[in-house]
Amino acid sequence: AGRLVADPDRLDAGFQRDRIMTAATQIFIERGFTASSVDAIGRAAGVTKRTIYELIGDKEALFHAVCARLCATAGTFHFNAAASDLPLRDMLMDMANTILANALAPAATAFNRMLAVEALRFPDLVVSVMDSGRHEMHEKLAGVFAALVARGCIAEINPSQAADTFYDAIIGSRAMRAMLGYDEPFPPVTEIEARVDMIVRGFLKPDPGTDTSGGIA
Fold first, then answer.
1. pLDDT tens, position by position, 88-146
2. Residue 204 banded pLDDT, cuts 50, 70, 90
């Protein structure tokens, strides 16, 4: 008595939506927005065109849903930099590795390449998607720097500016080169360390007299 039974219709709709999203992601990446069709996505997902319209919407709505899903997946990472028992340099190395793994992942490169192809034909659509992904990463980074400032681990800086500076210093043009087809392997540890040290010494240096016992190595 009192046992909960799942609604079969709801499970079926959720299963179908997942199949649609998986098929749409693959087709959009392979063919781009223009050359993709709801019919082709329906065939790949094993559902009717009507089901796609009922569960998600037309092709543009489907594209937005796929992009949102990819951005959300990329945003599921967590920075361990908020751990107070880690030295600052270790925190930043963890953040740098997380950023690089996210930006240089094959799926992210393929997706960004597809967006670049569609940018001239659908600039508003592509810009909104790219802004969403960048915002996700930016907010997580800025949150870490805000916490470090609040704890007195780094100088009194603008967390948003720190997030931009750190991201740009770590990534540089790697993601762009990968998108253009260059072989862009994960950088060696020594290079990541050099970039992190540059940030620590030149941008995040504590103010004179700051108590650095909470995280500066």
1. 888 889 889 888 888 888 877 888 888 887 877 878 877 777 776 677 788 888 988 89
2. confident
pTM of model > 0.90: no
CA–CA distance from 20 to each of 17, 55, 147, 151, 165 (Å)? 5, 9, 40, 46, 38
Reported as a single tens digit per residue, the pLDDT across 25-44 is 889 988 888 889 999 999 99
Identify residue 86 by its one-letter amino acid code: L
Angle (nearest 5°) at CA 114 between 120 and 167? 95
List, in sequence order, the alpha helices (H) in 151-188: 159-171, 174-179
**Lookup: tokens for 147:** 């916490």
Helix 123-150 vs helix 88-103: crossing angle, to nearest 10: 170
Chain centroid to CA 34: 24
Ramachandran area for residue 5 (φ above 0: left; ψ -120 to 50: alpha; else beta): beta
Whole-number Å distance between alpha carbons of 139 and 185: 26
What gap in Å lies between CA 182 and CA 175, rounded to an integer? 10
Long-range contacts of 200-208 (CB under 8 A, 24+ apart): 200/88, 200/89, 200/92, 203/157, 203/162, 203/165, 204/88, 204/148, 204/154, 204/155, 204/157, 204/162, 205/154, 205/155, 206/152, 206/153, 206/154, 206/155, 207/155, 207/156
